[in-house]
């Protein structure tokens, strides 16, 4: 299994336990607040039409801090980064729209080609190997 995919799935499952509320307007928010047995005043807007109950906000913040620390540690591991790059190459615009833009594929990793080029040797090696393996599997020559 892909270590990066497992890590993302674990984080997603933890976020789902927070009972986040999604609403794009006041009417939807009111309906969701009633459905979730809370008041609009008890909700914090955390961006992109997503709200968290004030009682869960501390958990939300702590979860984000924990993920950030895990990410810093995991992103220096060759095997983890290789899995992350492979995952991104197969699951984003890179292969879906066939634009073959590495920056698009690695954007979810908060990386760019420039950042990879100045990053730790292990990250650079993992990226180069993932590109090579992807290209060989699909019999393609890419930049």
Into which percentage range does the β-strand content fall? 5-15%
Residue-averaged pLDDT: 88
Q: Give me the number of helical elements.
A: 8
Structural class: mainly alpha
Report how far the terminal alpha carbons are from each other.
28 Å
How large, in whole angstroms, is the Cα Rg?
A: 19 Å
Descriptive terms for the model:
3 strands; 143 residues; single chain; 2 domains; mainly alpha; elongated; three-stranded antiparallel β-sheet; 8 helices
What is the topology?
Blueprint (H helix, E strand, L loop, with lengths): L2 H14 L4 E2 L3 H10 L7 E5 L2 E4 H21 L3 H14 L1 H4 L5 H5 L6 H5 L3 H17 L6
Antiparallel strand pairs: 1-3, 2-3
Helix pairs in contact: 4-8
How does this structure look, described?
The chain is mainly alpha-helical and 143 residues long. It folds into two domains: 9-67, no CATH class; 77-137, no CATH class. 63% of the residues lie in helices and 8% in strands. It is built from eight helices and three strands. It has helices spanning 3-16, 26-35, 54-74, 78-91, 93-96, 102-106, 113-117, 121-137; strands at residues 21-22, 43-47, 50-53. The protein has a three-stranded antiparallel sheet with strand order 1-3-2. β2 (43-47) and β3 (50-53) form a beta hairpin. The radius of gyration is 19 Å and the shape is elongated. The mean pLDDT is 88.
Question: How do you describe this structure in short?
Answer:
With 143 residues, this protein is mostly helical. It folds into two domains: 9-67, no CATH class; 77-137, no CATH class. 63% of the residues lie in helices and 8% in strands.
